Structures are given as C-alpha cells and as structure tokens.
Amino acid sequence: MKSLFVGIYLAILADVGSTAPHASSTLIAPTAEPTGATYASGFDMTKSWANLSPYKSAQGFGATRGVPRGCELSQVHVLHRHAERFPTSNLLDGKGMGDFASKLANYTKLHQKQAIANGPLQFLNDWEYVVGENTLMENGAATEDASGADFWIKYGRLLYRSGQDNVAAWNESLNVYPNGTARPKPVFRTTSQGRILESARWWLSGFFGKSTADSSSDQYNLVVISETEGPFNNTLASYVSCPGHKTAGDEAAQIFIPRYTEGALSRLARYLPDDFNLTAYDVLAMQNLCVYEHTSLGGSFFCSLFTEQEWKDFAYNIDIQYYGNFAFGSPTGRAQGIGYVLELAARLQGRLIHSSDTSINYTYDDNSAQFPMNQPFYMDMSHDDIILSVISALGLEHFKYGPEGLPIHVDHAPSNRTFTLNDLTPFGARFISEVWTCPDNVSFSSLDPILYVNPRINEAPDSKRYIRFLLNEAPLPLKGLVGCEESYNGFCPVDGFLSGVPTLKKHAKYQEACFGDYPTGHQVGDGAPYS
Ligand SMILES: *[C@@H]1O[C@H](CO)[C@@H](O)[C@H](O)[C@H]1NC(C)=O
Ligand SMILES: *[C@@H]1O[C@H](CO)[C@@H](O)[C@H](O)[C@H]1NC(C)=O
Ligand SMILES: *[C@@H]1O[C@H](CO)[C@@H](O)[C@H](O)[C@H]1NC(C)=O
Ligand SMILES: *[C@@H]1O[C@H](CO)[C@@H](O)[C@H](O)[C@H]1NC(C)=O
Ligand SMILES: *[C@@H]1O[C@H](CO)[C@@H](O)[C@H](O)[C@H]1NC(C)=O
Ligand SMILES: *[C@@H]1O[C@H](CO)[C@@H](O)[C@H](O)[C@H]1NC(C)=O
Ligand SMILES: *[C@@H]1O[C@H](CO)[C@@H](O)[C@H](O)[C@H]1NC(C)=O
Ligand SMILES: *[C@@H]1O[C@H](CO)[C@@H](O)[C@H](O)[C@H]1NC(C)=O
C-alpha cells in the first residue's frame, strides 16, 4: 500500500518536473495548499476511484478467509469484470470530460494570444485531451492476464489436480474425468462488446498460459453472447433486455455533485477567467481526468488539485450512480442480476434451461455445447454492474443501506456505508462461487490458509455440498440470502441455496421491474419496485 502511494507521488513529481517547465512551482511543493500531490496522512487517492480503481484484493466484508479442512473443492463459478478501459460516453464519465475539453478549446480559440489559466491550472494553457473511448487498455489486458494466472494457482491446479509435475501451468493432459477419459474442451462465455471479449481472451490466456506465451485459444471454446440492443436477452449484459428504470442513481448523483464540488469550484474558478463559468460538472470532469489520465497515460496534472475529502466524495458520487442504477437503490437492481443467479442454480443442478421469463436467452442455455454441465469451472466475462446486480438479486444485506437508498442531500460521503465500488468492482473485479464437498464432521469455524492437494470425497457417504461466494478474494457474509439461514462463516448448503432460488426470482419481479409501469425518479430500498 505504502509503495503504491510513493509510486504515484513520484510519478506526479516526475511529470511535473520533466514535461512542464512552465508549470507553477506551487505544484511541485510537497505541501501545496490547499491541496497537493502528497497527503501527509498516507491517503491513497486510487482507493477513492470507485469502479475506476485498480484491482486489489478486497479488505474484507466480515466473513473469515481461508479454506475448510477435509473438504474437496468441487467446482468454481467465476463472474468477472473487464479491466482498465477508456471512458464510456456517459455524461458523468467520458462525455463530461469531452465537454470540458471542448469548452476550454472553444474559449481558447476566442481568446487567442491570452493565457487563460493560471496558478495550479496554468497547465491547461497547453493541455490536450488525449484519452480514448470505450476500449480495453493495454494495462487492462495485463490485469486480466494476471487474474487468469492467479485463478490457475488458487483454483485451477486443485480442480484439475495438477500434481507437482504440472503445477507450473495448465497442461491439456489434465483435462480428464476421474476415470482418466478425456473431457470435452471447456466452454466459457463473454458478451460481444469489444472490451469484454478482449478481457475474456486475455483472462483465458493467463489461465492456460504456456511458458512460451503461445496463444491458448485452441484449448477452449468461447460463447459470445450479443450485447446489441434488440432487445437481446443476455445475462451478462442484462440492461439490453430490461427497459425498466435504470437511472435513479444518475439522477441521485446529480443532486450530490453540486454539493460536494462547491469548495473545489470556488477554489479553482479563481484561476480561470470569470466568463469561463466553471461549473460543478467541469470540476467532476477534472477529477475524472485525473483518474483516466493517470490510468491510461501514467500521470496527470489534475490529480494534485483535490483534497482527500474531495476524493472520498468523488468515490461516493460514483457509488450513488451504481447503487441507484444497478443495485439495491434501483427498481431493476435485482431483475438485472437474477438471470445469472438462475444460470448458477441450473449449473449446480446439472440442468439445461429450456424457457425464459428473465434476461436469459434460453437458446444459449438449452444445449450442452454452449451451456455444459459438470465443468470443473465456469468463467463468464461481464461488466461491473452485473456483479452488483447479482449481489442484489442474492439479497446480501451487508451491501444494503436503507429503505430509501443512499443519502444524497448531504455535503459529504457517509463513512458508514458498505457499498463502496473501490472494494466491490475495481477494474478486473471477480465474483466467485466456490462449491465444496465436505464430510459430515466438517467445521467451518477455523479455516486453513491453503489447500495443498484436493482430496476426492465426492462419493463418500454423508458428504454434503456447500457454496460460498467471494468478491475480490474476500468471502461474503450471507445474511439476507433466502435459503442460507443456516450458513456459517459464508458456507451455505447447496440444497439450502437452491431451495431459496425461486423466492429470489419472485423478489426480483423481473417482468414488473423491466416492463411495468411504476413511479420512478427516486431510489428504492430493496432493488425492486415498491409494491
Ligand atoms: C464548442 O464549439 C463547437 C463549435 O462551435 C460546438 O459545437 C460545441 O458545442 C462547443 N462546446 C461546448 C462545450 O460549448
Ligand atoms: C503435459 O503432460 C504430459 C504428461 O504428464 C507430458 O508428457 C507433457 O510433456 C506435458 N506437456 C507440457 C507442454 O508440459
Ligand atoms: C469416464 O467418466 C465419464 C464421466 O463420468 C463417462 O462419461 C465415461 O463414459 C467414463 N469412461 C469410461 C471409459 O468409463
Ligand atoms: C436469442 O439468441 C438467438 C441466437 O442464439 C438470437 O437469434 C435471438 O434473437 C435471441 N433472442 C433474444 C430475445 O435475445
Ligand atoms: C458564460 O456565461 C456568459 C453569460 O451567460 C456567456 O455569455 C458566456 O458565453 C459563457 N461562457 C462560456 C465559456 O460558456
Ligand atoms: C427473452 O426474455 C423474455 C423475458 O422478458 C422472454 O419472454 C423470452 O422468452 C426470452 N427469449 C429467449 C429466446 O430466451
Ligand atoms: C449512518 O450514519 C447516519 C448518520 O449518523 C445514520 O443516520 C444512518 O442510519 C447510518 N446508516 C447506516 C446504514 O449505518
Ligand atoms: C472428521 O473425521 C475424520 C475421519 O475420522 C478425521 O480424520 C477428521 O479429523 C475429522 N474432522 C474434524 C474436523 O473433526
């Protein structure tokens, strides 16, 4: 953590020093007032970048880490987010930055021969907007590759029982049933969107990675589910089939944004002409520019302009957007996630799906070529919001704030919320469902740090399957999950979980949430329309 902070500090200093001889010296001073590139407290701004934060293992959500002694790791289901991308065209994301750049360029054109900005904003006189759009970045590809490799060491070697000979990497000869007969090629899924498809390939490249860095695509089949408006049912991009209300979060954030940016606005406006009319949205754009420039270019002048509190509030503005658009604050929150939950249940039951009244497109799920059974692991490449909707469809109370959604008539982020995208959906986020088969005397109270060799106890009498969910490597507490009332330390009997799924489906109210007529314009409490 420390070294990351130091790295950023040095990167900013290096940028200021080397590429901007005309920059105001106040930028370089480590104690720049009222803001600065350094934070004496050790504050790390990258942890306040919400869903734009770099990947790191989550701090923890209240359930103990570790693996249960004596159990077999039977199966793993991965729902994965793409990694570092360029901004989307959303107003509060890429469009806002583009508008700010265009406003500045227009103003500059009208006031030739005049330096427009001064003080800490002096760099704007030579600044250009060079950030791209929508696609996966090179470092995003690297994040996915690393994640696939990490999955190999933690799960793949156990599921495929690599032994000492093949512990270093996947080997096709491992893809066999317990009786030694070859298994079919594993099948994985992705949406058709460029950054998602590329993320899937890079992740799989990391998993199958050969020491010679050969392409691994001959080792697997990839099912690409279209993400085009159609409407096309797609559980990994369920917003395309659910026209219901999905903007309560954006609307809520637009109430909070002018409030939290007030201080920065009056501070920064002083360094621009009055008739530039700096707005709250320009300030938000400048924070976004720090994040995107830092992520895609390796540094940014914008980063040192803001205080710790302003970064915490920036994070909250994005948390609100996602909470109200895709999670418990959204009337379609559960609906957008229930399709994946139903698919997970079907995979656990070894059952194909032949009809749909949710975002599932059953033509993908009614055949074992695209929806295989009993695969050691599944990997579905998707978006951050789908992970959030799945957590909401599961009803995990840990992430729920209150009956009216997240507070927005406040000046600063409430520190007592647990819905923080920095922990939930950084770039490359991973939601993992582990299936363990355990003997009847299993204890989940004290867990081991690692499983060296995966035992085979599948056929043992009295053995029982358990499911556990992890987000970014930290187990999730199951309070609120129907059917898992008896769970302990995050482990729920698979039978119990499956018994609750029909109720979860009811709670999601898919048809009403996606196609019904209900009051909109505000957040809700439980991820479904009030009724
Ligand atoms: C900048 O000028 C162009 C051309 O006149 C115009 O289309 C655009 O809307 C202006 N941008 C802003 C942010 O006002
Ligand atoms: C894969 O495993 C087989 C059997 O252990 C071995 O003969 C072969 O050399 C391995 N291949 C690679 C590329 O490591
Ligand atoms: C090995 O096990 C698989 C899966 O259970 C089965 O389909 C296959 O027929 C078995 N092969 C032999 C030779 O028993
Ligand atoms: C379902 O998927 C098939 C392709 O497998 C496609 O032709 C069809 O349009 C899709 N339907 C919906 C409603 O998504
Ligand atoms: C700022 O507002 C004034 C008054 O409405 C307007 O004339 C001017 O064009 C605005 N400046 C910019 C850069 O939009
Ligand atoms: C697509 O979703 C709708 C539910 O809104 C469902 O009625 C329809 O059968 C689904 N189509 C397919 C091909 O699964
Ligand atoms: C968070 O703190 C606020 C202010 O003290 C309080 O009103 C609210 O109930 C708390 N919410 C949660 C979820 O703890
Ligand atoms: C469960 O029983 C097995 C076999 O008797 C024993 O080796 C193991 O230590 C027991 N585990 C626990 C947690 O008591």
Automatic annotation (TrEMBL):
UniProt-recorded name of the protein: Histidine phosphatase superfamily
InterPro entries registered for this protein in UniProt: His_Pase_clade-2 (IPR000560), His_PPase_superfam (IPR029033)
UniProt keyword annotations, A-Z: Hydrolase, Signal
GO molecular function annotation: acid phosphatase activity
Pfam families for this protein: His_Phos_2
Source species: Aspergillus avenaceus
Range of residues in the leader sequence: 1-19
Transmembrane regions: none
